[in-house]
Amino acid sequence: MAANWNELQQWQPLAAQMLVNSLSKSRVAHAYLFEGARGTGKKDMAVFLAQGLFCLRPDEGVPCMGCDHCQRIKSGNHPDVHLLEPDGLSIKKDQIKALQEEFSKSGVESRRKVYILTFADKMTSQAANSLLKFLEEPHPSTTAILITEQMHQMLPTILSRCQHVPFQSLAPVLFKERLIEQGVHPTMAALLGKLTNQEEEAIRLSTDEWFVQGRKIMLKLYEVLKIHPFEAMTRLQSEFLPHFKEKDQIELSLDLFLHIYKDLLYIQTDKLDHLSYPDQLEVFQKDALQTSTKQLSVQLTTILEAKRKLHQNMNTQLLMEQLMLKLQGGSALV
């Protein structure tokens, strides 16, 4: 996860700048709602904001990260910064009540207090109503940071009392770099950066033998389709269908296929840093020279149309057979 200002600024520039401006001008809101998909750095930014509020040596709103307060907040050991997470499947009323009692006391080391509420959408109705009273009558120098992936599941009255800070999904190139830092092989990180923006899922898939084998099957299917289109039908029966069985697995296979053809387009437009299959560069370069941009556009549209038909519960075997024929012929599904 992000550990310093430069990384946060790179990953979430709008959110980072908004919060630093508030810190530097001493215009911090009493409550924030950090909203966005999992893996977008919301909790990191909450810690950053808390550090900015307590830091002994801030530089134009940016915490130093090195003072005693910054270090203890980072390690979760600051007495005036409280992290509240679901107890089991939900955040319960008793947890909010205990938080209110804690915040009715004076700060241990300063007048300021901060609480970070993760998965705020998982509050029970009783907990949400208790928190609402807390937000309606905020204690002086208290800052609330609510974190959610499902803003629409929260009470509108709570949302109206928070400053909304949206978090965007990480750009695939940045996410790829993040995965490589976590030990994922660069070749696999390039593809996973396109398939998901959730770090835990990406790391799991990178060592999942089913996924690794699925990637090989789709690359082989692509190769066979170029040379022996009718053999592709045979491989559908012998390799593809036994491996990709569930609907979500079929959808993943279509995404794997889609990124093969996108790579050809990236090569034609000299965007090699965008490749999902960098280990196939030599092969794909030859293919890109023999394929027109117009044909690639049709093939990409064909795969996207197959994804749409999949969600309409079309028979998966028939769907894939049609896809093989249309891709080879260079025309879209009808």
TrEMBL record:
SUPFAM superfamilies given in the database record? P-loop containing nucleoside triphosphate hydrolases
- Under Enzyme Commission nomenclature, its number is 2.7.7.7
One GO term describing the cellular component: DNA polymerase III complex
Task: Spell out the molecular function terms from Gene Ontology.
Answer: 3'-5' exonuclease activity; DNA binding; DNA-directed DNA polymerase activity
Q: Which UniProt keywords apply?
A: DNA replication, DNA-directed DNA polymerase, Nucleotidyltransferase, Transferase
Biological-process GO terms, alphabetical: DNA-templated DNA replication
Q: By its UniProt entry, which InterPro entries does this protein fall under?
A: DNA_pol_HolB, DNA_pol_III_delta_C, DNA_Rep/Repair_Clamp_Loader, P-loop_NTPase
The enzyme class is transferase
Taxonomic superkingdom: Bacteria
Q: What catalytic activity does the UniProt entry give for this protein?
A: DNA(n) + a 2'-deoxyribonucleoside 5'-triphosphate = DNA(n+1) + diphosphate
Cleavable signal peptide: none
> Where is each DNA polymerase III delta subunit C-terminal domain found?
238-327
- PANTHER family noted in UniProt: DNA POLYMERASE III SUBUNIT DELTA (PTHR11669:SF8), REPLICATION FACTOR C / DNA POLYMERASE III GAMMA-TAU SUBUNIT (PTHR11669)
Q: What is this protein called?
A: DNA polymerase III subunit delta'
State the species of origin.
Jeotgalibacillus campisalis
